[in-house]
Amino acid sequence: MQHAVAALAAHPLIDLDWTVLVQFGLFLVLYAAANKLLFQPFLALRERRKQGIEGARAEAERTHASAEAKLADYENKLAVARGRANDEGRKVRSEGIAHEKEVTDRARGEAQKAIEEATTKMRAETDAARLQLLPQANALARQIASKLLGREVA
């Protein structure tokens, strides 16, 4: 066993010789090949993907901003249209009220005139009937009293 320990002590743990240079050269060749064939295409693909995503985000933001502007314009136009509709409604209602008042006043005036004419006509007819029946009333009253009393009343 001493012999094995002595053998290990004579040989270093890492043996540096010309194979290290060969390994380093192979490392550089593989690094260059991997860089050219793997890393650069992967980085380029990643950059294109990033630009595509950012472009899509920018397009989405532009579209969103455009939609917001169109919505605001639509709401503004809708508010203007509602205002006009309310104004028209008020105008139509006020015209309707004015027309209703005019028709009602005219009908009231015609009814009042008809009532006055009827009252005047009734008074005239009542007066005419009174004048016509008054002379007959005294004679008729005497006749009724005579029949009730059974004798002639003067």
Your description of this structure?
The structure is a single chain. The chain has two helices and no strands. It has helices spanning 2-10, 18-149. The radius of gyration is 62 Å and the shape is rod-shaped. It starts with a helix and ends in a 5-residue tail after the last helix.
Share in helix: over 70%
DSSP E strands, number = 0
How many discrete domains? 1
Strand fraction: under 5%
Output the structural class.
mainly alpha
Indicate the overall shape: rod-shaped
| Oligomeric category | single chain
Radius of gyration: 62 Å
Largest sheet: none
Rounded mean pLDDT is 87
Instruction: Tell me the distance between the termini.
Output: 189 Å
Low-confidence stretches: none
Number of helices: 2
- N to C succession of SSEs: HH
Summed up:
By secondary structure, the protein is an all-alpha fold. The chain contains 2 helices and no strands.
Q: What order do the helices and strands come in, and which of them pair?
A:
Layout: H1 2-10, H2 18-149
Throw out a few tags for this protein.
single chain; 154 residues; mainly alpha; 2 helices; 92% helix; rod-shaped
